[in-house]
Amino acid sequence: MDEKTRTVRADFDHLALLSDSGWEQNGHYDKFLLKYVTQQCENALEIGCGLGDFSRQLARRAKRVLALDLSPNMIRLAKECSAQFSNLDFQIAEAMAYDFPTAFFDCIVSIATIHHLPPEKIIAKMKNAAWKSERGGPYVPTPIVYGDCLYSCTDKGVLTCFNAKTGEQIYQQRINEQGFGLSASPVAGNGSLYFASEDGEVYVIKAGPKYELLAINPMNEAMMATPAISNNMLIIRGQHHVFGIAESKSNGLQH
To answer: Domains of the chain by range and CATH?
Structure first.
């Protein structure tokens, strides 16, 4: 451990002892970050966990959480406050020297540590520790996690389904053999995925590990905005109109 790292450790060891006086300047980030942690998270990593406040929140969502901090005092106090979390593993560790498993973590968080480390090197380590796909990524539409799968669709309508936990590709399928333009991100509900295309059609795909095109619904005008779902209604903005599609008591879902 070099002199700079020893100095940082000593500083954070001292800060840990101030915990009784309410030293928590980073707590206001917690709710914002938790919005991006999926309920299907298998393995989560926090670098620079401090007293473990956010680590414990992660442990309520993820099956396993590895929380690292350079400060022995921080880890000691974090463990004392976390005895009820059997899925939470606190370790004293220097992030740059830690041997992270490759493509293992579904979620990696660092609230107040990255700026203390060489940014290019630590970000490269974090990327290597999380699963990723080099192909099948979208240019404009945002991927979506629904159930146990992550769905990513290119702007030309090629849909790739991944296991959200492991990153394993389950299938890749062109939704329409003739191709179509896609700028809107997909939405999901009632076991289906909805893709609103620039060509004026809404494609309904069955959610799950097997590809199945359930319906193609012509709206007869271009759609570039992402649809919304509210109170069991699918709301779609077209070039000239806003469409609301909801369940009819007599006829079921009207596409």
So the answer is: 3-129 (3.40.50.150), 144-253 (2.40.128.630)
CA dist., res. 53 & res. 51, Å (int):
6
Parts of the chain with a pLDDT under 50: 21-23, 251-255
Strands (E), the chain: 43-47, 64-69, 88-92, 107-109, 144-146, 149-153, 158-163, 169-174, 187-189, 192-196, 201-206, 213-218, 228-230, 233-237, 242-248, 252-253
Encoded tokens for 62: 């993820």
Question: What's the pLDDT tens digit per position in 163-212?
Answer: 877 778 899 999 988 778 899 999 999 899 999 999 999 999 999 999 99
Q: In what order do the strands lie in the sheet with 187-189?
A: 187-189, 192-196, 201-206, 213-218
By 3-state DSSP, what share of the chain in percent is helix, strand and coil, each rounded to 5? 20, 30, 50
Max Cα separation, the chain?
74
**Token reading at 205:** 């795909």
Compute the distance between CA of residue 150 and CA of residue 77 in angstroms, rounded to an integer. Answer: 37
Pairing relationship of beta strands 233-237 and 228-230 according to DSSP bridges: antiparallel
Which residues is 107 bridged to in the sheet? 44
